[in-house]
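Many introductory courses stop at the sequence. We go one step further.
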Amino acid sequence: MTRLPQWADVVLVPLISLLMAGIISALVVLAIGGSPSEVLGTMVTGAVGSSYAWGYTLYYATSFIFTGLAVTVAFHASLFNIGGEGQAQLGGLGVALVCLALPWPHWTLALPAAMLGAAAFGAAWAAIPAWLQARRGSHIVITTIMFNYIGAALIIHLLVNVLRPAGQMDPATARFPAGTDLPTLHEIPGLSLLFDKQVPANVTFFVALVACVLVWILLWRTRLGYQIRAFGRSEPAATYAGISAFKVTMLAMLISGALAGLMSINNVMGESGRLLQNSSEGAGFIGIAVALMGRNHPLGVFLAAILFGFLYQGGAELGLWTTIPIELRIVVQGLVILFTGALDHMVRMMLGVFFRPRRTAVVPA
């Protein structure tokens, strides 16, 4: 297959994949008797048509940035971490324990502590599959999938039997102290001019942006990042060069799990104010698509997370204002995943025809 220029690989392939997903989505809408223009208009208005809509889009995108970065770090070490969902839920447990441990006087003190708790619990949940891969040869895909279900069952048990306050019916922790409330974008000086209503997007969005920069520095400006990428390209060559397979596997998965766990400061601490069932809301799985579409680069992850935030919020608006079922957003997300992941090779082959080097005629002497 013809090797594409870097700009075409980074820009053209995702755009064409997205366009093809949009065309197929339009055909699906027509098949169920809907209007593609009505669907598109509702999604655009509901996701980016106002500051209130943008607030929800950025709220969802924040979670997707963390889980997309989690998949990215592991992927560069040739580890397919599908356990972001469970790691995010365990990260939420870490946030809850930290927030309930003390009567925090201000969010600036509670946030760093909650971040440490989220990262530690997420990393710990990723460490077990990592050790099984590095020492026992267990496939990381299988073990991380299994740990999603184990993590969900553990959270339900703790919420029902351990952390639920006496007399409370719903399986959830007590509400966090008022000092743990994170300011929303509406409450931040300067941004209140843009976000004139209360929105769920909060300061965690800026933490996610910092995480993008730090992951870029880690992967492309540090010795450990070089070892992770070298190991991911060729494990035998990296081992021959003296890179420890055990060290890279463990560290890459610990960082990946920590990033997935950090997602919970957005929804558990920033939005719900307590730990609920299924606090990750599927963001762990969407992070896989975000990383694939973002070409496993922090900048691409950020842009893809905004797109999926748009799809998530816009899809919710479909269920409110049209007869189109809200499940259509799942169809669109699935098509985006299909074309950016499974059919990525097909798109590259199509573009390869246009970037095939021309043969120069040989003139006989």
